[in-house]
Amino acid sequence: MPGYQPGLCDCWAKTFSTGPFAGFPALTVRDHCLNVGAVSLELLPLLARPVQSLLPDGCALLVAAHDIGKITPGFLWKCAHWQFPEARPAASGETDHARVSQWFLSSLAAFQRAGGRPTDWLLAAGGHHGRYPSPSASKLARCREFSESGWPEVLRGELWAELVALFGSPPGELLFLSSGGAQAAARVHLLTGFTTFCDWIGSDESVFPLDAANAGTHNATLPGSRAAARTALESIGTHRRAVLPDLDFAALFAAPASPAFSPRPLQSALVALMEAPGLYIVEAPMGMGKTEAALAGAYARWSSPDSERGLYFALPTQLTSQRIHRRIASFLENVIADPATLALVHGNSWLSDERLLQLSPTAAQDEASPENGGAAEAHGWFASTTRRALLAPFGTGTIDQALLSVLPAKHAALRFFALAGKVIVFDEVHSYDPYTSALVDRAIQWLHHAGCTVLVLSATLTAARRAALVAAAGASEPPAPDAYPLITRVATGSGIAAHHIIDDGAPRESSVALEHHSAADAGLWSRAVQAAEAGACVLIIRNTVALAQETYRQVKSSCCGESFEVGLLHSRFPQWQRDAQEDHWTTRLGKNQALRPRGCVLVATQVVEQSVDIDADLLITDLAPTDLLFQRMGRLHRHDRPRPAGFAAPRCLILHPPVDLSGDAVEIRKALSPHSFVYPPYSLCRAHALWSQRTCITLPRDIRPVLEQTYAEESGLPAGVAELREQLAARVARMIGTAESRSVFASPSTADKEGADTRWIEQETTLVVLLAAAPEVRGSRVTITLHHGSLLSADAARFHMGLARALHRHAVRVPRYLVAPALAHQPAWFRAHLDDAVLAIRTPGTTACLIPDAPAGTATLHYHPEHGLTHTRPAATAAAFSPEEDDGWY
């Protein structure tokens, strides 16, 4: 058809994926834009009022026009069955339709200020597929269109005019990142996420079916598309967050067969303060009910008219988020007014049967109900990715999932939209390194501008760190009182933080007797055994897995018979075993006195340091930074209960390395090893100097002064210690600078993967899967033997969820260099179920673990059911790695 040019009906947006017309045009650009715009019109009123106010007037038009750039030769010629192949020029033209959309919209006068500069609202069109275009993207799209006749621009103009007629005028507000600061950045990012979400729903063929009989014609109408969008949004329930009104504190946390309890002063104070949105920093001792305070505060915000709705409760690790998941579910079932979803959101949440819980307004549910254990099926829409899970009305998960929303990760904007307008809780915020802390500050800054109220919880926050958090919310801090507990509030719109001292009446104080011993004193383990024989529950915390394993052996060798239980907790056990051990010990050493043993010794690493309800009669701990020593002491005498004779008062034995602080930096670091491979040597020097002078610490009274003394700028330090301080300062500056350089709009896009850019990782890790027998592969089926002897068989030619879960539950995370040579030699069925992992087979009758076809340079692995995994580093690489890269692994 020489000379014939495409019309608007000829411009396709989607093709048929299956059936006799697979690969043929199915839906026009016009109809797709109308469908997505209709979703935005239905979704906007469902958003929390603060979020609605941040999106520009006329945003529905921008959302509808997101794919107008599909009217370009480079995109349309992707379909081999398009009816105009003879019009193809020699060059294919720009194929990224999002770039063309942004370029076309930026060429319209309505989006330009004087001088022709286009508003940055248009970044949402360019970035709606998960990545923002490069700064030169608009020019690139323009110069590569390759259309001599100009028909694409004519048709885009025709569609634009129709969209304006349907959705109204463009935004009157022209916003620019260069002059709008963090607020402008947050609003553009929010609009991008809003656009992406609407595009997801508008592209769902179950919502907007493709019609083969009417392909290539305009069929969509705005009323019809809005009705379909309304039904879809209601069925998904993404923004269903209504709560029951006027519940008192006891009702919020009511549980069957449990007595009602009254709020503590901290909890009452926080609820009373949260009549306004903003940032709330809660500093209070371990075990004082900060979690309940935060949840009650969230309910207070939800109960206010036109306020935030929904929740994301973020914790430092996958393990801590899993522990609190059910606890938050119980709270939500007491307060929600209509059915909703609570999602567990972290990189391995798909391994949990409870990753998606359907919440009911009733306080109790039938355990066999598909609405309970079968929530993954009932809410399959949320199950496919962590991004979708984050869109659930309520969520618990890792802080990494929140930080990915303000990093240049793919679909960061969708994550940001998922968090906008919710109450966000950052728990244990003291536990992050300077790199992650800088990202936390950015998240608080942006979420503060996205209609969120943010609660920060910590037991050991320094004044400097609190000031940084206040600054992130755009405020300054007046001189702060030394009071502890303390709530600091930055109300939205206020430039000044306010401090609120908590009057706890006669606060419960605990004087912990301190003893200082050499870390080389092996006689301590006999003392631990004697304490257990006297009925005490003893907790020993070592700084590395290797130290914990060796201590466990020594304690076991000092025992006479089996008069008490000895346990070991660390990260080098397979996940199934670690879960079982942690459940066992948190039950035995938890609140229930009836389950408490008469004497025991639990040896552990930092896995029990925080967010774990373990109550010890005696604590023995390696030297650690001051804030972490306080966290460890939070495991001492945690509950009111009778104590064995001689253990009525809490006592902590601190193991000090034999260090001479007058030596040079190299000597000090060496003397502090292996602890200096886990923690900054300067922090250990300060802890050693301060704590060794104390024979008693009073909690919580001494927490703040000792913390500030630890991190105060000291003069007159020995030369070696001063050098270590300079090294730490340089490292901190590098970490913060790296975090600040990761720009959402300007940095190269990174993987949407937990931990990839949210943590400062100097040593890569991978998984080793420990199986009791070699897998059997027969034809297309593979059969593996699980730890309890049962068999699991699956089709090796396709992904099998049950097999993937089983492999993960039998996996141990190790430094990658130990098994790197073997990674490329894994069977295809295994690689299809685990990315970047190694299969190891336990040898019957021995501790050896064989990695099939492992080349030279692979470490020798050993597994003992009591001790966990150990290794011998490969000779070829042992010299290339310092102990830091082994012992820092915990």
Based on CA atoms alone, the radius of gyration comes out at 30 Å
Averaged pLDDT: 88
> How far is the first residue's CA from the last residue's CA?
69 Å
Number of helices: 34
Count the beta strands: 27
Low-confidence parts = 363-379, 878-890
Largest sheet: 9 strands, mixed
Arrangement of strands in the largest sheet = 6-5-7-4-8-9-3-10-11
Structural class: alpha/beta
Tell me the β content: 15-25%
Give the CA-based shape: globular
Q: Which range best describes the helical content: under 10%, 10-25%, 25-40%, 40-55%, 55-70% or over 70%? A: 25-40%
Describe the structure.
The chain contains 34 helices and 27 strands. It is of the alpha/beta class. The strands form five sheets. It has a nine-stranded mixed β-sheet with strand order 6-5-7-4-8-9-3-10-11, sandwiched between helices. α12 runs parallel beside α13 (290-302). It is globular and about 95 Å long. It starts with 11 loop residues before the first strand and ends with a helix. The model is unreliable at 363-379 and 878-890 (pLDDT under 50).
Features:
890 residues, alpha/beta, nine-stranded mixed β-sheet, seven-stranded mixed β-sheet, 34 helices, 37% helix, 15% strand, disordered C terminus
Task: Give a nutshell description of this structure.
This protein is an alpha/beta fold. The chain contains 34 helices and 27 strands. A hairpin with a 5-residue loop joins strand 21 (781-785) and strand 22.
